[in-house]
Amino acid sequence: MTTLAEDNSNDLWGHPRGLYICFATELWERFSFYGMKYLLLLYLTKYHLFSDAAGLGVLGSYASLVYAMPVLGGLIADRFIGMRKAVTFGGLLLVAGHLGMAFEGEAARQTAAGIVRDDQALSIFYLSLALIVVGVGFLKPNISTVVGKLYPDGDPRRDAGFTIFYMGINIGAFSATLLCGWLGEVYGWSWGFGAAGIGMLLGLIVFQWGQKTLMGHGEPEHPERLTQGVGIPGLTIERAIYAGSFLMVAVVWQLVQLTDTVGTLLDVLSLTVLAGLGWFLLFRCSKVERERMFVLILLTLSTVVFWALFEQGAGSMTLYADRVTDKTLFGMTLTAAQFGAANSFFIFSLAPLFALLWIRLGRRGWEPTTPVKFSLGIAQAGLGFGALVYGAQFPDQAGVVSAWWLIVAYLLHTTGELCLSPVGLSAVTKLAVPSVVGVMMGTWFLASAYSSYVAAQIATIAARPANEGSLNLTDALSGYTELFSQLLTIGLAGGAVLLVLSPLLKRMMHGVR
User: Looking at residue 379, what DSSP letter applies?
Assistant: First the structure.
């Protein structure tokens, strides 16, 4: 077994050297992911002249699949190829996908017969999205697992190591949204998407270069299985996994174009999971286990409300920034995509303060319970839209709204995220029956996937047709105000319901905080 003394010989600045390799790899992976996230809808609606509803449909399908795929990728790594190979393979798919996004093709044009689009370019675009979805599935869950394996059991440095690791995520997200958002809208979409691809390539190079620092962690548990045949000459289990992954790319290639099909699949999967969990609660749990699991399921369902509001950032809020916002801040003119950087900025500005706040409240016995934190998070997400509704009453002479209202909205969404997100996965491990912790983790990510789809569908309330012509600012602002008013109501109502239920839920948690 690895000892602390052995680990210390491989340390740099008080942590295993491999931490910094994982830090840099994830930084560049998140750079590539967020570099294209806030450009995606603008690219579809402004370059390929998609209607808002069609563009949001693609965004919702893509985002939901991106959040669902890591469940499968983590399972494959755990059972077969190990984390290191999964990260490498996922990185290769991501590089291919992001660089494929850099192929623009011809811009769509309006003719008397309708809109003419470059179908070949769109086909490459959908294939690129599919490569990214499957690539994220392999890389995202497994790079975090490698970080955990770098520390021996009981190592007090583990939490600090993950803090450093998550800082890399936010640095990547912040810098990518600013840089790629600027390149994409100012110099051309291929520049923004291409920069995201180069970022992922750098991350993959760093990971390969730093293999030795991982000290053998992340290798397959039973490497001999990978060379076993599967009944087809020359096809081993490992090769079959890679071949099957490309088949999955082909399936996702079609799914990102079929929004209704993705929605149906999510509905069926969600109902199946809920039915299975209901059976488990009734017939396989003691009274205490049943009540704790009920609380966990309710909290998981409540996250659908929160993330459906939060994920408006890449959807309706980006279109709002593009169309009806004065994008000048501190004398500088931002692009619509760059506003997404506000979330990452507030995360690394406020996360230490929230951590300190919970500690100090805990010492006094005042720390809110998990259900109360969830209710606060959902309510703050709603209040973010309240800021936009209020600000919409004060357009300037040009008919656009100050960017500061959008910044306030992102601030409230971020404080809501800090109340809910950090304690979410912890609640899964504390409240779930040990035999189904993995299932509940998968259910948690399924809820995130479902919320991304729901977010896109909700955003169509303010959708604009593809061939509407010149933008009427008054009508557009009215449409977004109607949407945001409904989101404000949903957030406040959801938070209030959970707050009212919190005393009951606290009792049902039986001492778990």
Answer: H
